[in-house]
Amino acid sequence: MSLRILLWSGVGIVALLTVAATGWLLSLPSASLAAVQPAIDAKEAEAMLTALKPKRQRPLIAIIGVNDGTETTDYLMPYGILRRADVADVVALATQPGPVQLHPALRVEPDATTAVFDAQHPEGADYVIVPAMMRDDDPNVLTWIRAQSAKGAMVIGVCVGATVVGASGLLDGRRATTHWYSLSELRQKHPTIRYVADRRYVVDGNVATTTGITASMPMMLTLIEAIAGRDKAEAVARDLGLDHWDARHDSGAFKFTRPFALTAIGNTLAFFNHEQLGIPLTTGMDEVSLALTADAWSRTFRSGAVTFAAKDGAVVSRAGIRILPDQVASDWPADRRVSAMADMPSAKALDRTLEDITARYGARTTDLVAMQLEYPRTQPAQ
């Protein structure tokens, strides 16, 4: 069962219910929590930074998406973090003209199409960031990624974006990781890939991959460190509200469990209680916090997040991405309005959102969301 189907539509629940009917779910283990892992060895960390070093003093970073289905946080979080760092030129691309529909929430106008980018930058990008997409075999995406790699770009597959990079052939024979749910699929389709456990991101030559959705934050900070040094990365981390970051990860804490499945089924069957939650768009808002908030609320299987603004037309975020409102409205019912967490650092927005989800739907739903995001949490939801 594809992660894209399970996490981006209700179709996956049908499969879950089928499995549940066989009784197999009842034999699955309970959910576990992420444990603190040993620090990354200094030689390993230095090797990753060396591999990520740019070729130009002011590198060019391209984030590629497909118009009809690109993962929300995979696309927006790298854009927001790298733009605020101001250590590279960063562009958000789409394969075709028009807006990019992000999943499970938000709709944005990219900076350019891949064709326009190629015409403006025939030498190619220094880095190409590949988010998860609704399909991992889009021929336009695969052709473009291969061409950028051939020109010398470092290709970074974020989350299930690793399966897109894998489909391009760039991961064959390399060390890699991906979102826990897509690992079996990746290894089946590409048996020469050498999976690396307990790492949020893995760098092998001119290709890097990450685990789940939230891993793009430490990955981008590491990239900033490789480009501009540790002091700059630490300054951006402070702005984000992070005290530390590195590649350590507890892979064993993320797996398909009985509570995960049964909570998803129960929340889906409670369709009469499904809510549409509104998030107001405001000029200059933090797109990283917005992405994390909208993504999390849209993964509860009880709610979906939509954006609204007083008038039609794009609202420009802090880093310059143009966000299109889902609905034109001057206000939203107070009991179904949620905050984009503009009053706190971006890294804290997800924690606060998970607390709000616990208060609204309970701890099991919070665990369900955190598992989908592959977000390391050392304490259970209260």
Automatic annotation (TrEMBL):
Residues of the DJ-1/PfpI domain: 64-225
UniProt xrefs under InterPro entries: Class_I_gatase-like, DJ-1/PfpI, INH-QAR
Signal peptide: none
Any Pfam family: DJ-1_PfpI
Official protein name in the record: Transcriptional regulator
